[in-house]
Amino acid sequence: MKKNFFKFLMCGVLLSPLALTSCSNDDDAPSNEGENPGIENRWITLAGAKMQQTPGDGNGGTVVYSVSKENAKNPNYSIDVFGQGMDVLSNRTARLNSSVDGSKLFNITYTGANGGTFMTYNVNGANAFTQSGTTVNISQYAGTSPRWAKLFDGDKTGIAVNVTSPQIVNNTDGTYKYTRGTATVLSLDLQNILISASKQYEIPLTEAEEAQGHHIFRLDAPTLNKAGNKLIIGTWMRKTDPATGQNQSGFERLGTKSLVVDYPALTNPTIITSTVDNGDTSGYRSFNSFVSTDGNIYQATQRGTKGSHILRINQSNQYDNSYVFSLDTALGVQGTYVDAWRYAGNGIAYVAYTYTSANDQGFIARVDLNNKTAQKVNGIDYDADLDFGQYQGFVVDGDEVYVAVTPTGKDGNIYILNSRTGAVTKGAKLVNKPGNHYIGVF
After folding, report:
1. What is the domain partition of the chain in residue ranges?
2. Which of 77, 212, 283, 359 is 20 to 30 A from 264 in CA distance terms?
3. pLDDT tens-digit map of 92-127
4. 365 in Cβ contact with 380 (< 8 Å)
């Protein structure tokens, strides 16, 4: 994974009650961390989610354990993250990111008394994770349950986003006008563990869309464009029934939407809309869009009526509606749903997905973004209890993509997928416990 070390122009910005620092850069555009020559002696960290009440709910906390690449690739080596790992600070499932070289974990705690606390861990092997002495709590800006992602800018920046519970606004005569929440977009300096900038605003849709009750329920999966001057942020759309004021299900969906803001200022929020699909672009627990080798952003959709699509956002930060890539069509199934995915370089990506008749069973597909083709990866031990719904982390190291495959409550394995050749190698055994599952490799 290429590391670009940007020069940052530091300027002071006061956001009471914290003194914040605004960071910008005018060096080269950010690299895509899916394209790299591989990193020698990189740690491979496994993360597991513990059951709280229901098998697979992942709400009982998160445990991590790290091994060498050599051991990760060894099918005779066993990793027991739940028996030997370290608990990461988080009330529920932690949302983790790792540094390019695997030497650090970044975490924002999710919900609870310490929700919204950002911290870093140094990875020292096995269960030896050393938390840095500094933390910063962003809950006063982004709430105790912020969604966030690390930008592909050489481990410099994380972006946290949130929307307050949408509220109904009526006209003066008492009739329905619109539903809106207040959005927060906040940048974190991952190196110095501090808030770089934070902005809040309402994000209106068109007057006609809002009159029908459509609104943004959630923001997630921020991505920095190739030029390094815009963030593309995914949306999860909902609809209020104007007649009752209640949340409406089964509504006719709008075209797929994303939020675009200036970077690093985080200002000038605008909405872009795709006519290709009507799904959401927020993903769930992982990255949901990537800058490809061709400089365009590719973005997965969820919860639409047409199965998941991969959409393309061009370098003018607009949807390219001439690019139509339906995973239903490519895979020959109905009702595909992208749980998580990762760009691997040279137009190739790997997608963890399910589909309507699969009863939530997870599969992995190798996707060619240039040719708009997808093929289920064979050579993986699929199981009816395999669920990627909370999956977070893939490691891309040169041509190799590491993924953890464990059915809920059952043992599984690391698999190493070669993005150039398509080859599949079974790696270390992952020891599980009843109700638990592995949620990523970092």
Report:
1. 8-44+89-119+132-378
2. 283
3. 888 999 999 999 999 999 998 899 999 999 999 999
4. no
